[in-house]
Amino acid sequence: MFPSGSRHSQKLKGGSVVIAKTSGKPLVPVVYQGPLTLGELFNPFKRGGVAIGVGEPISIDKK
After folding, report:
1. What is the count of structural domains for the chain?
2. Looking at the predicted structure, is the pLDDT value of residue 20 above 80?
3. Which of 10, 33, 35, 37 is the most buried (most CB within 10 A)?
């Protein structure tokens, strides 16, 4: 789930916080840097890398 509502940097939306509060589970921040489509990812003429980073879980109170 992208809290910006898409894979692009935009204003964050609150849906992921609502789900975390309702479920009692923490949010785990993840960043993906790389091609935006499978075609770009598997293009043999344009090789690029993919980087995925995972942050520490963020606890959200149920208040």
Report:
1. 1
2. yes
3. 35
